[in-house]
Hints:
Blueprint: H1 22-32, E1 44-48, E2 51-54, E3 59-62, H2 65-68, H3 77-87, H4 100-112, E4 120-124, H5 127-140, E5 153-157, H6 166-171, H7 175-178, E6 188-191, H8 196-202, E7 207-212, E8 215-216, E9 222-223, H9 226-239, E10 242-246, E11 270-273, E12 284-288, H10 290-294, H11 310-325, H12 328-343, E13 349-355, E14 358-363, H13 368-377, E15 380-381, E16 383-386, E17 389-392, H14 400-431
Amino acid sequence: MNGKESSVESAPASALVDPAKGQEWLQRYADSVLGVFGTPQRVLVRGAGCLVWDADGKQYLDLLGGIAVNALGHAHPFVTSVISSQLATLGHVSNFFTSPTQVALAEKLLALSGAPVESKVFFANSGTEAVEAAFKLARRNSAAAPDGKPRTRILALEGGFHGRTMGALALTAKQAYREPFEPLPGGVEHLPFDDLQALEAALDESVAAVVLEPIQGEAGVRPLSTGYLQRARELTRAAGALLILDEVQTGVGRTGRWFAHQSSGITPDAMTLAKGLGGGFPIGALVTFGPRASALLTAGQHGSTFGGNPVATAAALATLHALEAGAVLQNADDVGNFLRSSLTAVPGVDEVRGEGLLIGFDLDGDFAAEAVREALEQGFIINAPTPHTLRLAPPLILTRAEAQGFLDALPGILDTARTANARTHAAQSTEAPA
Ligand SMILES: *Cc1c(COP(=O)(O)O)cnc(C)c1O
């Protein structure tokens, strides 16, 4: 049988589902999808550039980009066509085999990260998987202490987020994420954020690795100081510990550079990537820098069925190509600077942080959740990583005009949110038993 004779020769995914409105989908979601995410804010059906539409036809400016994922916006024509043609040629082969796109992507990532000779890439399917690989890399550094004692400790930071699988969760600091799943893999200690004295006191030859986000994303876009990153590099090198940078959120152009750590001039021993890498297609990667880090995980010590498959690696190659060809990192830098300087002038905004198009700003009260809801009502997708912090991680192709549209609406959004928050508190205090 050839494709032409098939009754399912060509059809959009929407042909596989019956049409329904948003509320009906949400009810069916609640009845069928595991409740770990709570109730979704909307049911989205379509996107183009920085815009998305929900099942009721309402349009939104997407200022979150699927949490720093949709670097080129939605339905980017070049990325879409590369993915479909790769899928129509060869979709999956397993790691008993390789493919040209896998090799080309590894080479491209090493070139963009300025990695020295004998650097390598391991491909995974998500951020947490890239971090798991990094965790195993750190464990393999255990036997390398000069006194023969194993390096059992791994240092991470308070506020750090590294994913939800067990190893990544052990590195993640947030108690609410950790406690229900203890015991977690041992040996991880969380140091106070950006505190050099604490790092100096903790780092000795019993440490296998230090794991840092150059900018903590989930904690509310908190940048580590350049001095901290540079000193962490010196101290880990001296102690024989690995410096592992988690750039799952900050990597691939998000900050206006290919990788956030490049602004500090350091070279890590390993770096994790995911979110923006596939332009919306799931893929993760661990880059190991130089011969020592690249020799720690040997044949048979790690693996993945899907990791590095032809479609995912083609998607990432296409994304990197389009970011380069369109001078998109420059745009991220320009529009990011414009947004940050404009945000500082908005009443109710206390502090603005971040680089490129990874932006966090603190409000002068705990009404960020209400602001997210009101923004959605007004057609903007944003996010509240903390009760008083809003985060923007839009497509890196966001235009100044699109950014301006949000800035124009923001004072009204914050006013309404503050009022809604005050009303909730007033209602709660009158409801409280005497
Ligand atoms: C999102 C994130 C992860 C986890 O990535 P997933 O793809 O959700 O598994 C890990 N580290 C950082 C810094 C992240 O922002």
